[in-house]
Amino acid sequence: MSARLIAGLVPPAYGAISAEMRAALDEREALIETRADAVLDDALAESAPWTTALGAPPADRRRAADWRKSARVIAAYRDRYRITDDAPLGAPPESAAQKIDAARARSALDKVRQLVADGSRQTEAGLQAITHTEHGPGRDI
Which of 64, 69, 74, 100 has a Cα at 20 to 30 A from 43? Predict the structure, then answer.
């Protein structure tokens, strides 16, 4: 099982840490998480070109929450590495650290796409079931 990462990218600090240091680290973690939310919200509100690759959030609340969590990782990655182009993950990573984060962001992008695809299939199946029930089997609308 992988450790929980701050904004899906940053490993938290563990070990013997003074209460003062723990409070400072917790504060910074909250600020990073808040910034990731703000970057994602701004990009979605502005219809930033890279958000097109995310698709629409699924209608199901649980899937929508998972979609948002993964989309935040991508937003945090873009923010951390100052990515401004239209591709969700930008240019190929330049450093070893960025390669690790890029892999995490790629995994998040794959998950977002899977959630959107699963949501579309679920919606389509639901519509077919409604049509079948309302109009009877084998009847066209």
Answer: 100
Q: Give CA torsion, residues 14, 20, 25, 27, to 10 deg.
A: 140
Confidence at 132, pLDDT banded by 50, 70, 90:
very low
Dihedral over Cα of 13, 103, 122, 40: its sign: positive
- Predicted TM-score (pTM) of this structure: 0.81
38 has a pLDDT exceeding 80: yes
Secondary structure of residue 128 in the 3-state scheme: helix
H or E stretch at 97? helix 96-135
- What crossing angle do the helices spanning 61-80 and 96-135 adopt, rounded to 10°? 160
Q: Which of 70, 71, 72, 57 is nearest to 123 (CA)?
A: 57
The full length of the chain comes to 141
State the Cα–Cα distance between residues 127 and 6, nearest whole angstrom. 38
Residue in this structure with the two tokens 């899937």, named with its chain if needed: 63
Nearest to 36 by CA among 114, 93, 95, 108: 108
User: Which residues are bridge partners to 6 per DSSP?
Assistant: 10
